[in-house]
Amino acid sequence: xxxxxxxxxxxxxxxxxxxxxxxGFLMADGVYExxxxxxxxxxxxxxxxxxxxxxxxxLDMAAPMDDPALLEVHRELVRLNGIDExxxxxxxxxxxxxxxxxxxxxxxxxxxxxxxxxxxxPGLAANPGAKQGIKVIGIEDQRWGRRDIKTVQLLYPSMGKxxxxxxxxxxxxxxxxxxxxxxxxNNAYIVxxxxxxxxxxxxxxLHGITRAAVLRFxxxxxxxxxxxxxxxxxxxxxxxxxxxxxxxxxxxVVEIDGAPVGGGKVGPVATRLREIYIEESRKAAV
Amino acid sequence: xxxxxxxxxxxxxxxxxxxxxxxGFLMADGVYExxxxxxxxxxxxxxxxxxxxxxxxxLDMAAPMDDPALLEVHRELVRLNGIDExxxxxxxxxxxxxxxxxxxxxxxxxxxxxxxxxxxxPGLAANPGAKQGIKVIGIEDQRWGRRDIKTVQLLYPSMGKxxxxxxxxxxxxxxxxxxxxxxxxNNAYIVxxxxxxxxxxxxxxLHGITRAAVLRFxxxxxxxxxxxxxxxxxxxxxxxxxxxxxxxxxxxVVEIDGAPVGGGKVGPVATRLREIYIEESRKAAV
Lengths: 286, 286
What we know:
alpha+beta; D-amino Acid Aminotransferase, Chain A, domain 2; 8 helices; 29% helix; globular
């Protein structure tokens, strides 16, 4: 049984509970981060800690712990649960005031709720799926307007994953005003004539930590990066397509709405970026 | 201390908890209803039970209890907590599978989570605020696309309430494509030349139970009802404005974005509709 962290206590997972009055439960008033673990170390912890602070700040929530304290809990959970490859999930909510109210509680009276748990995923780096690639479908983007804040409002992404499954695919790319925003839990890319194309940052997409790292590595490797919107049709005709996220790293996409991309085979750019990303992440992990 | 209901058990509120793996907490994968209590009886329980079933069905969730069983829990909580005027809050989530996953859990293995609690609000019907009216501001509607499903994704409405508070107002009306959708937790109306104007039903707004009842009473009283979108400017120039919800019934709006509506005084149509609604609701309460 896993040991998880809830508000200062390390507990067996079946004893890990929150009040029914927690605003995370009643109002989706919370944010989260997922940090990968490779070789028992945390990948880009600093990036996740930075984005977490931004999410909290956008929602007028104070950070309940500083980065070193947060890092310590991450590391302790990795140690207690013997995680070699996997991830650490962190969620912070606006806490559990005595009653349900749309008005934010006074933070002096209602401390934030802090929850962390691990997921062990042996084979995360060597994932054979990365040699096959995944299939995606396009769905309408029905999410709220501030996707740059990493909130727990994940119902629609979860529905999107089910729509993909029902269509015999692995994931869904969301479309707004004719252009792809991102995947259900990842950023979306295409490769055309050697250039890597991915949507520009804004409130429409999550500012992926893995996205930032992969684009940095791509530029360092002298690849051309274009940050702009693209359509499903453009993606279907691209040389390659792929997604990035903290837990899939770089994952090739070989089919979009039933149309093969790049002949339906994993391409060299996604493959190379995945190698570079995992190699560099291992080196920099803490 | 209140007695609340969690998955079959009646518990003191400070013992009422859910797993951190509950999808309501991790993914906002849950729906809710709020039913008012007048004279110790439930207002329009059948309407709320019907809408609950629709919300569940739209999210591919089975109803964990039938209507008589749900009514019994509502009544038992009203009795145990001695509620004369107030409300019963009900939330159903897709339950707590063993781990976090965007894919829906098998409902055979993961039962829904069912939570109910009461809020006592003496003076709900005689609320003196209804003689003063409230002030609202207009804000951009940033919510997801399926507002007809009553999900717990209430972060933006909650933020909207805080924006209203910061502006010295009581609530916010949300604006999409230039037209008012609804309030943060209520439907929005204006009165013009004797006609009651409120946005038509669709995925853009919640299908208010109080809205349906108030429009029915209005039509029975030979008032003209127009179901169509309106702008903030049209609302500011209207004869009256008001909101409806299960817990505010009919509440006059006397100021919109700083502009007085109807001379800044509560008007006769809202006043009359409030009287009729409360009178009829008392009669029909169960």
